[in-house]
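assembly run, all chains below
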Amino acid sequence: MRLLRSLVKTVAAYAFLAGSISLLAEAGFVNPYWVQILELACIVAISAQGLNLIYGYAGLFSLGHAAFYGIGAYTAAYLMKTYGGQSQAAFLAALLAGGGASALVAYLIGLPTLRLTSDYLGIATLGFGIIMKVVFDNADGFLPELGGARGMTGIAKMTTIPWAIFFLLASLLVVRNTIHSSYGRAILSVREDEIAAETMGIDTFRYKMAGFVTGCAFAGVAGGLYAHLYAFLHPSNFDFFKSIDILIIIVLGGLGNMSGTLVASFGWIFLLEGLRVILPPGYVELRWVLIPALLIVTMLMRPQGIFGAYEFPFLRGKGTR
Amino acid sequence: MDYFVQQLINGLQLGFVYALIALGYTMVYGIVRLINFAHGDVFMVGAFIGLYTIERFQWPLAAVFVSAIVGCTVLAVLIEQLAYRPLRHAPKIASLITAIGVSLFLEYFTSLRQVFGPNYYSFPRPFPVVSWDWYGILVTNIQAVIFLVTILCLLLLQFIVFRTKMGRAMRAVSFDYVTAGLMGVNVNMVISFTFGLGAALAGVGGVLYGIAYPQVNTFMGFMPGLKAFTAAVLGGIGNIPGAVLGALIMGQSETMVSAYLSSTYRDGIAFVILILVLLWKPTGILGTSRTEKV
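ok done. output:
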């Protein structure tokens, strides 16, 4: 019964959000530019939930998130371009394949690197991110469709508000339900104290891997959505700064906090785009002077993140807080 | 064979510049366990100070180095006091994000037209270039200056860290800063000094980089900074000879890949080596692993 009720609630929430925004856009209340920004914000939020699972909950310091985002994007775009055409079912399959490809690569990378501790893991994943950027840059050598450093074109514009919100809600549900399951508690225990967790009989490596692979799969799906939003991919969309963007979002929101990650993703994207609109012409280059200054001030005032430990009610577990 | 030796010398030149940056990363990490992302940008400021003092003021080379050292030291100490010190007891990730913020701020603030400007600027040569042909291998006086200045810096650093009172305090703080504080070491002062010392080396590195690769812009610090940091991790972070060793390996591998494979793979190779080394020795080549106590 409870399952059915929560299912109905989720579907209703989804129908309301996706429906109302699509209607507003159709009716011309929201201009297409902002609809696109909203879609981008959803995509970034999905990817950020992934990193939140990896770093916020599992405590694995990853500086290479954009690489998995890129793997998903290129995989989905390649599959759609060669086999998919314009079909919605093929789009779903391509997105899932993108997520799957990221998960597979994450597993292979995780096998050796997840044994490293904190900062060393960060540097290894950073290195992996830069290697993947070089691979994307030279990708036309093995698959001409990927375009390499010239960028990949001819991708269908498939990403819509309903798709973006669907995957965003799905990612929130997966993270919420994982964290409040016995699996999730095992993941949290590894973050808190690996040795104690191991003493309690928890297979720490397995749970670290589970968190890492799932989080990277989110990034892969988000990447696929991204590819079909702008219909153009370039290796520079997946460089070190994109990993840092997502890291900034989850730290600003509060590590291991779904609500914070969600709000910070939207806040970050709308801040980036909003400043473009607000700043008078000729001062747009001040954007990246103001943003870091704001970032530093926020960190100095709230080092634990904007949300700290507060979660929205629908993201809390049963019987917690 | 000549070609190989020639590339070896070019790699050494790059490696020495990386070493000067890597030392700042490794010392700061050794003391406060912070990846100081802003360090690469301090290096950039050093290069720009070099540009201005050479081009506008026509100062002699020694004065150029001194002004870059002073400028970078002041900048780094300011950054440390304003941005990192208030967060010293906050979660480590907060300082890291702040460091990224400082790095972006420095890059974009200095790229404003009113500061250094957004373009690429050609770095003036402070002395006419002379190259010596030595059994078919070309060595320039630029390379000679880089080798001499870097080795001088390394000797000076070695002296400061192992032969002075401040150096002993640095080593103590790096080992255990709470205990060092209890023993009467002024921890705040030591941390500021370390940031300053690292920045001074980065300033020298910036000027040398400008002389060797004569094109500068305000985003030039990012990639060398990242590679120098990687070099520090490669050699074992917190370890001074390790940073130099890592930087030399990094310089060689990059130059060799550019020379024998393709320069498009240049940025990747450094990290492939890093990951392979970390799998073999998780704390770097010269790093010591601390056993975890429960």
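The two ends of chain A are 23 Å apart (CA to CA).

The mean pLDDT of chain A is 89.

not gonna interpret more than that til we talk
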